[in-house]
Structure formats: C-alpha cells, structure tokens
Design brief:
Length: about 300
C-alpha cells in the first residue's frame, strides 16, 4: 500500500481562494481591510523565513500587513510598549510575535497582546476559551491540522487519535481539539510526550497519529499501524551536502518508510506548514470582522 499524500499546499490554496473573496467583500461592503502585524525580534534564519512567508501571504490576499523587525538586544519593556501601540492601532486586527524570542520574557509578551487581536491563539484567555469550547482564536498549527483532516474527509469521531508532543503551541491544543465534542472532533485521544515509556506501544494503536515531537525520525514505520492517517507537524533542518544551501527540511516521521504503511500522510515540506499560515490569515479576517462588528 502507498499512502495518499495529504497536500497542505492544495488545501491551503483552496482556503486562500475562499478567503480572498471574503477580503474583497469586506472591502467593498464594509470598508474593512483586515490588518496583521508580525513582530520579529533577532535574526533567527528560520524565524525570518516564516515571517517573510506570513507577510507575503497577507499581501497576496489583499490584506494590510506590517512587519516590525527589532534587534535581539531589544528590552522586554520596549517590546511591551510596541505591543501596546499595536493593541491601540485600529488598522491592525491581528498581532503575532514570532517565537522563540531571543532573550525577552515570552510569558509577559504573550500576555500583553490583546486577546481580541491574538490571532496566534496563545494568550491565556484564548487557550482558556479553547479548553472551555468557547469562541476565541485557536492556535494556527492545531487549527491547520483539524482543517487538513476535515477537508480530506478523514473521519475523526470515535477514532483513536494519538498525539506525540505536549507543547502549548501544538501538542496540548491539538489533543484537546480532537477530543472536543464538535464537528471534526469527538476522538478518543492519547497524549504522548518525552516522559512516555514505550512510545511505539501507544503510536501503534493510533487510527490518527499527530506528531509534533521536534525530532527527525521520531516515528519509524514499525511504530505505525497499517492504514493509519499520519499528520507530521515537525519542521527540522538537517544537513544535506547535495543541496546548494547545505540543508533540507524533514519532519518528525520517517516519510519514505511510513508512507508504505499509512493510509494517508502529510509530507514535509508542503504538509502542515502552509496550513499554519493559512489559519493565521483566517484568524486575522475573523478578528477584523469581530472588531469591526461584521457578522
Ligand atoms: N514559531 C513557530 N511556530 C509559531 C507560531 O505558530 N506562532 C508564533 N508566534 N511563533 C511560532
């Protein structure tokens, strides 16, 4: 068996087309142009690349976008001041501070973003709303994972979903969403992490396996059940002398081996990655509508 390739680029393109029409409609009927501010501190090459993609995607949809770059030496106080200005700026509906921050107090920074502009879904109020099943903003990568499953017609309800990784950015929220009694949820969920003994024992039971371990080849073919649906959230740069730039991207799953066993699998790149950016745009449009009083 060879798995169906769950192409995040295709699903993202479909969603962005829908959102482009919505942005045009908001401009024409409501004189509302959704605006996103992305804040980058320091010069981490991966973060620079992500931020570029986010700003570019915004512009492609006709949204307003601002990118603010600061040196790694920026003080936490100065960063909090910038966020306060963005909170008060009526042309900005969404604020994203790219993580990881080099040296600033991440918790204070995330807590300062207005929950109504927190399109990253990382403010405690939005994570609390997620946990309670209330309307708020879901973090972009977990939201993207749910969209891939839903738009690919993968049945989630009643299945056993195993999530590997418990980060607040991905593992914990995705496990919670998959377990929620809602469309696209209602799974039985097991959350595995670095303290799990015999990880393979659990992953082999997964009908749906979501991997956000941050480690190349964390999941090999003998750890996957025949016919499972595998979502690889990992983005790892590994050395590759055959590439001019000297590296390539791989996920957390041994793709070549696991695709022979799985029913469906996301590739890396072009799996979850494009969906993360798409859900950021989605959340920003939602934020603009809520702040602008548009249904
Ligand atoms: N760094 C890696 N992923 C993310 C994300 O989803 N949001 C933010 N703010 N930073 C990240």
């Amino acid at each position: 068996m060879s798995a169906i390739r769950l192409d995040g680029r295709e699903i993202a393109a479909q969603m962005r087309e829908e959102m482009g029409s919505e942005v045009a409609h908001l401009a024409k009927e409501h004189m509302l142009r959704p605006g996103l501010a992305v804040v980058l501190v320091g010069e981490n090459p991966a973060s620079q690349s992500y931020v570029r993609s986010k700003t570019q995607a915004c512009q492609e949809l006709g949204m307003h976008s601002v990118q603010l770059d600061f040196p790694a030496s920026l003080s936490t106080e100065a960063l909090l001041g910038t966020i306060a200005e963005l909170n008060a700026d009526e042309s900005i509906h969404g604020i994203l501070v790219q993580l990881p921050l080099p040296d600033q107090d991440e918790e204070r920074v995330l807590n300062t973003v207005s929950p109504e502009k927190d399109v990253d879904g990382l403010h405690p109020v939005n994570l609390g709303r997620l946990l309670r099943g209330e309307e708020g903003f879901w973090p972009c990568t977990p939201h993207g994972v749910l969209q891939i499953l839903q738009r690919s017609g993968v049945e989630v309800a009643g299945k056993h979903a195993v999530v590997v990784g418990r980060s607040p950015l991905v593992g914990r929220p995705v496990a919670n969403l998959l377990a929620q009694k809602m469309e696209g949820g209602n799974a039985t969920v097991t959350l595995c992490h670095t303290g799990t003994h015999d990880l393979g024992y659990f992953t082999r039971q997964a009908d749906i396996l979501v991997v956000a371990a941050g480690q190349p080849r964390a999941i090999t073919d003998e750890m996957v059940k025949e016919g499972a649906v595998v979502i690889d959230v990992g983005v790892n740069r590994i050395e590759d002398a055959t590439r001019e730039r000297g590296w390539r991207l791989v996920g957390d799953v041994d793709y070549a081996a696991v695709r022979k066993k799985a029913r469906a699998i996301t590739p890396v790149p072009n799996g979850v990655g494009p969906m993360t950016i798409t859900m950021l745009l989605y959340n920003t449009i939602e934020a603009a509508k809520r702040l602008g009083g548009v249904q």
